[in-house]
Every structure is written in structure tokens, then in C-alpha cells.
């Protein structure tokens, strides 16, 4: 994808008059604006939060009767959302994922997934982001969420995509999990309209034939940067797939990438087991796919410590250089 | 009050008969079913469920999704069979079908209630401490929509050890949910212990008062008192949630089960079933 500065208007996001393509935009801002927009068209849309979400102010002020801040009570927040969904509403729970995915896990499973209610959980701090330390990093969340029956699981880096996924999710009858990184400054990866965004379908962010780099969330930009280096410095033509839906996984796309590129590197800001790499490995095993190379890059079995996002990725072996090295290794 | 759904016109004596019928049918099921039934906690909440389904709640077995109906959330999901039979007596389900299929492959009647498999059940429950948050969300919908039905939940006292209960207690008070009513089956027993020995819930009513709730204390086996408590509930459009703490006895009505830790759950062979039914009948004559 080009990162040349270019001012465009994002479709369907009238409030965001323009942004400079390739620069940074806040996913949280997009969420706030999208929820306000959807609140107008869906009078059964509610927004709930356990004391998180300054960017939900627009929704709160516009639809105070459909906004609930329960304070620091994640379990009650998710349970109340389930109760609201029982009454025919579409609740969006917004908060920090380490707490929503773990402290409220049983409420997510038994109160939302069991009766298959249309509750959306959208949150930040997926991965080693925000420098909060291991209490504040959601690094197991995708493993937990993908194992839940009825749950659709997404992880999104591009801030404009978040808005589009939220819009599409209004038609969903079951639960949805949307994972973001910090959500304050996110790279706009896709020029609006340049890619088709559909829950359940991976996005080919860059074409290539020598290998496929699979990523989700913030590591998509990193994979694109790695593909650029591989092309410029090594003559390797890497495909980049943004597998923003981890469940249901896009099996057709995985099969096609296996046939057309033969080698996979998965890079994700999540434990190396339980996340996207595991989802893809399951498809490979179940379908009897023969690959010429497979590497998974992510967080090893450690509590990761403090540091900036990119520093932590480098330290734990799934940063930009590690991605390039893994691609070189599988194509050697 | 909910206009299109009328409440049954049962008096106290009829309610006592219906409670007796419920207990008798519970014991008969317990005798027929090979597996274990949570009979102790079923018997302790039998009068409360009778009060709600045969007297207090605006519900219509022929119109399960009527938006004006009162909602019921069985937070102590292990008392599902007691709820199924109460609802069968009210006309929701067929008692014979419950007895014939309970717990079997393909049955909608399981140990813990599932709304997906059994329409008429408002909410799927089983894991303790989930009912009050769910009921709070449902009451919030009713309150903010300006509707005047109530949302009822029934918790065991033991399950109020779960933190999620108190999170929801805060939220219900903070959101002025006068349409939310929590009945507590205060039978003072957990599965393996007596609550005040293992978990000191007292001063129990004060805990709820401290959380901003309106507290009603009542003998949970005195039907006249239960009716009086129900009739004294604040209007649904009031601003304070109410907890009705019902002083109960686990295993109530069957002498060898009452306050007996061995009867949290169990099954009845023919001899024990006969003893249990005789004890139940004896208690009724004595009353």
C-alpha cells in the first residue's frame, strides 16, 4: 500500500471530513463517531462501558438513554449487556480487553455466547501495547475468544476499518469481538474504497508470489513494511494478508495462498499459540496442506515487561527485522 | 401495571395448595429420575416460585413474548426443575413431559435452564452470580423505555458470595431501577456447609441497605406473609430496587431433608420417596 500523503474523504464517515492517508488516526475517535452515526439509524443500539471511553462522549451526549457507564464492574457490564440484548437491543461494550476478555470471560461465554446474543465487545490493549505491563496487555484474548461457541472474532489495525466492521455488525445475530491495539494513533492502511471489507474474509493487502505474510491488527503495517524491505533488498515478492477475522477463519484464502505462494509466515501481537498462527495451522492440518515453509512469530510464553510497542516486539522476536528474517528463512 | 396480562386471582389457601402440589410433583420426579436432583434448594424456594408464578407476576403461557409481561430470571439455576414444574402448574409446560424427559438426551428440561432449548424460560442460567446482572440489564431496558413491567430474579443466599452480584447491586441502585425485584432464598446453606459457619453473610439485610436497596424481610414459607410482601412492593416506576429476603429452610417439607447437608442434591429410591411423601402430607395436616 502506498503511504504517500493524500487527503481523502472516508466513505460513510461524514464526520471525519478528511485525513491524510498514511498518517495516523485514532480508532477510538472512529468508534465514537461511528457509534453516534449508528445510534441514529438503530434505535436499539446501546453503548456500555466499565469506566473507559472518553471517545464515547458523543454517543453518551446524543443518546443518554442508551448509554451506561457501570464504573469498574466488568462482569456486571457484560451481564447487563446480555440482559439488554435479551430485550431485543444491540449492546456494544467498550473497554479494555485484558479485563473484558478475562475478568468477564464467563459472562461473555455463558450470558452472551450460550444464548447467541448480538452483543459486540470492542476494546483496546490487544497485544504488547500501551506500556502498561502484563496486567494491561491482552495477549491470550484471541485464544480465549476463538474458543467460544458462536463468537465471531476480529482484530483490526486500520482505524477506518473499525468503523466499517461496526457498521456491518449491526446485521449480525450473534456476538462479535473487536480487538484493537491502543487505538489512539493507528496507521490508515487502506485507501478508503480500495479494498473490500467483509467480516469472515481476509484482505490481501499486498500481492506476492514467493510467500505469504499473515497478520492482523497492528502487525499488518509491520508486515507491509517487511514486504517492502524484502522486495527492495532481497528481490523477494511477499504477499501480505490481513486476516482481520480470526473466526470464522477464511479457509479458502489460506488454501489459495498455500497453492500460490507455498510458504507462510504468521506475525501477530498475541501469544504464538492460540492466535492466528494456531488458526491457520489447524486449517493446514485439517486440509492436509503441504507447505514448503511455516513460521509463527508472536509473544513467547513470557510476561513481557515494559517498553514501547516496537521495542517489545523486537525484544520478543516478532518485530520488523524478525519478520524479514523469518521470510528469508522460509524462502531460502 | 401491565394492562394486557392479568394476574391469576389466587388466594392464600389456594396458593398453599399449589405449593403443596409443586413439592409433591418435585418429589415424584426425584423418585422417577435416576440421576441427582437439587431437591434441597428446590424445596426451599418452592413457596417463593409459587408466589411469583401463581400470584404475583403478569405472565401469559399463551403469549410468551408479550412486551408487557413481567420477566423472571432464575439466578439459582440449579432450581430449574422447581421452576419448570411451577411453570407447568401455571400452564407453560406439561408436567408429564418434564418427568418423562428430564435430563435425557434431546430434552429441553435440563439441570440448568436454557432459553434457547426451552422457550418460556427468559434467560439461560446455571453459573451462580449471573442472574442479577442479567436482570439489571433487562430492568434497565424497561426503565429507560418507560415500560411498567417488573423484572424479578431469584437468588440463593449462598450465591451472593459472588462479586458479580454486588457489582450489579451497585449498578441497579445507580440506575434507579425500582422495577427490579430480587428474591433471595435465604436457606442458610451452601452445598457443603451452613452459611453462617463458613461464610458470614450477616448482617445480611444491612448489606443490601448499604448498597441502597429497599429491603423486605419475610418468612419464605408463610404464604400469607409472602403475599403481603409482594403486595407491598414499591411501584415499578419507583427509583429504588427491592430485595425480598426470604427466611427459608433447605429441604422444607420433608423432615429428613430439612437443614440436612446430605440433601443439597440426591435421588429418591421407592422407600425414601414414600417416606418423603408421607412427611410432606404429615406436615400439611399439622399446619
From TrEMBL, chain A:
The lineage of its organism: Bacteria, Bacillati, Actinomycetota, Actinomycetes, Micrococcales. SUPFAM superfamilies: Thiamin diphosphate-binding fold (THDP-binding) (SSF52518), TK C-terminal domain-like (SSF52922). Transmembrane segments: none annotated. It comes from Citricoccus zhacaiensis. Residues 25-188 form the Transketolase-like pyrimidine-binding domain. This is Transketolase. CDD domains: TPP_PYR_DXS_TK_like. It comes from the Bacteria. Signal peptide: none annotated.
Amino acid at each position: 500500500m502506498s503511504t504517500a500523503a493524500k487527503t481523502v474523504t472516508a466513505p460513510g464517515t461524514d464526520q471525519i471530513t478528511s485525513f491524510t492517508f498514511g498518517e495516523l488516526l485514532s480508532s477510538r475517535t472512529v468508534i465514537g463517531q461511528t457509534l453516534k452515526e449508528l445510534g441514529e439509524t438503530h434505535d436499539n443500539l446501546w453503548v456500555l462501558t466499565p469506566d473507559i471511553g472518553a471517545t464515547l462522549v458523543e454517543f453518551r451526549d446524543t443518546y443518554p438513554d442508551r448509554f451506561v457507564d457501570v464504573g469498574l464492574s466488568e462482569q456486571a457490564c457484560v451481564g447487563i449487556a446480555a440482559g439488554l440484548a435479551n430485550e431485543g437491543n444491540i449492546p456494544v461494550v467498550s473497554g479494555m480487553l485484558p479485563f473484558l476478555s478475562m475478568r468477564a470471560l464467563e459472562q461473555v461465554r455463558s450470558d452472551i455466547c450460550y444464548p447467541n446474543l448480538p452483543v459486540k465487545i470492542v476494546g483496546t490493549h490487544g497485544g504488547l501495547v500501551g506500556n502498561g505491563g502484563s496486567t494491561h496487555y491482552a495477549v491470550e484474548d484471541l485464544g480465549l475468544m476463538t474458543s467460544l461457541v458462536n463468537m465471531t472474532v476480529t482484530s483490526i489495525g486500520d482505524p477506518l476499518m473499525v468503523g466499517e466492521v461496526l457498521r456491518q455488525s449491526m446485521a449480525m445475530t450473534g456476538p462479535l469481538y473487536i480487538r484493537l491495539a491502543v487505538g489512539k494513533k493507528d496507521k490508515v492502511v487502506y485507501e478508503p474504497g480500495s479494498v473490500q471489507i467483509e467480516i469472515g474474509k481476509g484482505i490481501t493487502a499486498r500481492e506476492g508470489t514467493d510467500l505469504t505474510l499473515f497478520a492482523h491488527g497492528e502487525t499488518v503495517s509491520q508486515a507491509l513494511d517487511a514486504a517492502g524491505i524484502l522486495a527492495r533488498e532481497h528481490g523477494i515478492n511477499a504477499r501480505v494478508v490481513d486476516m482481520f477475522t480470526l473466526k470464522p477463519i477464511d479457509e479458502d484464502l489460506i488454501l489459495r495462498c498455500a497453492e500460490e505462494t507455498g510458504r507462510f509466515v504468521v506475525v501477530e501481537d498475541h501469544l504464538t499459540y492460540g492466535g492466528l498462527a494456531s488458526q491457520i495451522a489447524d486449517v493446514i492440518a485439517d486440509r492436509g496442506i503441504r507447505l514448503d515453509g511455516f513460521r509463527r512469530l508472536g509473544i513467547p510464553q513470557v510476561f513481557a515487561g515494559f517498553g514501547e510497542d516496537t521495542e517489545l516486539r523486537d525484544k520478543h522476536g516478532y518485530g520488523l527485522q524478525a519478520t524479514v528474517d523469518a521470510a528469508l528463512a522460509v524462502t531460502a | 401495571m401491565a394492562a394486557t396480562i392479568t394476574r391469576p386471582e389466587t388466594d392464600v389457601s389456594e396458593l398453599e395448595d399449589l405449593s403443596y402440589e409443586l413439592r409433591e410433583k418435585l418429589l415424584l420426579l426425584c423418585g422417577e429420575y435416576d440421576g441427582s436432583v437439587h431437591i434441597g434448594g428446590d424445596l426451599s424456594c418452592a413457596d417463593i416460585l409459587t408466589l411469583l408464578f401463581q400470584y404475583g407476576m403478569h405472565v401469559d403461557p399463551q403469549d410468551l413474548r408479550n412486551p408487557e409481561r413481567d420477566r423472571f430470571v432464575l439466578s439459582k439455576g440449579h432450581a430449574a426443575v422447581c421452576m419448570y414444574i411451577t411453570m407447568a402448574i401455571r400452564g407453560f409446560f406439561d408436567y408429564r413431559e418434564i418427568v418423562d424427559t428430564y435430563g435425557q438426551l434431546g430434552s429441553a428440561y435440563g439441570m440448568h435452564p436454557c432459553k434457547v432449548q426451552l422457550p418460556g424460560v427468559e434467560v439461560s442460567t446455571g453459573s451462580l452470580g449471573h442472574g442479577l446482572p442479567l436482570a439489571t440489564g433487562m430492568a434497565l431496558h424497561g426503565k429507560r423505555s418507560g415500560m411498567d413491567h417488573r423484572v424479578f430474579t431469584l437468588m440463593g443466599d449462598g450465591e451472593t458470595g459472588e462479586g458479580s452480584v454486588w457489582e450489579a447491586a451497585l449498578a441497579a441502585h445507580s440506575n434507579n431501577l425500582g422495577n427490579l425485584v430480587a428474591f433471595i432464598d435465604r436457606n442458610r446453606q451452601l452445598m457443603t456447609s451452613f452459611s453462617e459457619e463458613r461464610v458470614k453473610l450477616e448482617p445480611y439485610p444491612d448489606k443490601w441497605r448499604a448498597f441502597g436497596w429497599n429491603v423486605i424481610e419475610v418468612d419464605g414459607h408463610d404464604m400469607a406473609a409472602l403475599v403481603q410482601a409482594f403486595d407491598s412492593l414499591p411501584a415499578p416506576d419507583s427509583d429504588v430496587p427491592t430485595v425480598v429476603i426470604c427466611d427459608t429452610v433447605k429441604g422444607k417439607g420433608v423432615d429428613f431433608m430439612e437443614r440436612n447437608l446430605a440433601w443439597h442434591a440426591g435421588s429418591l429410591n421407592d422407600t425414601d420417596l414414600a417416606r418423603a411423601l408421607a412427611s410432606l402430607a404429615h406436615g400439611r395436616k399439622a399446619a
